[in-house]
Design goal:
42% helix, mainly alpha, single chain, 119 residues
Length: 119
C-alpha cells in the first residue's frame, strides 16, 4: 500500500530460515497449535528461571547461615560398637512351673547315674 508516494520498506537481510522451514512453521501453527518460535523463547525462559532458582537457593543458604550463626550443633558422638554375642536371642520358657523345685525336674539318669555293663 502506497501512501503519499512512499515505497514499502523491504528488509535487505537474508532470512536464516528457508522457504520450506517457513511453510513448516506456519503449518504447525495452524494444524497442531505448536509454535517453534514460542517454544524457543520458553526454553530460554526456563533456563533463566533455573538460574534464578539456583541463585535464590544460594542466597537462602547464606541467610540461614547468618541467622543461625549463634546456633552450634551437638558434637558428633561415637558410634555404637557391634559385638558378636553367643547368648541365644530368645530365652525359652521352662516346661516346669517356677514353684516346683529343680530336683523334681532332673531325669533319672542324672540322679542315679548310668549303669555300665552288668552291675
Amino acid at each position: 500500500i502506497k501512501k503519499n508516494g512512499e515505497l514499502p520498506e523491504v528488509s535487505q537481510e537474508k532470512s536464516k530460515l528457508g522457504l520450506g522451514e517457513l511453510y513448516e512453521r506456519e503449518y504447525l501453527k495452524k494444524a497442531t497449535g505448536y509454535d517453534p518460535d514460542a517454544a524457543e523463547k520458553q526454553s530460554e525462559e526456563d533456563k533463566l528461571k533455573g538460574e534464578m532458582k539456583m541463585i535464590f537457593a544460594s542466597l537462602c543458604g547464606k541467610l540461614d547461615a547468618l541467622s543461625n550463626y549463634h546456633f552450634t550443633p551437638r558434637p558428633v558422638g561415637d558410634e555404637a560398637e557391634v559385638r558378636a554375642v553367643t547368648v541365644p536371642a530368645i530365652a525359652m520358657e521352662e516346661v516346669m512351673p517356677l514353684h516346683v523345685s529343680d530336683a523334681r525336674g532332673a531325669a533319672p539318669e542324672e540322679i542315679y547315674g548310668k549303669k555300665r555293663g552288668r552291675d
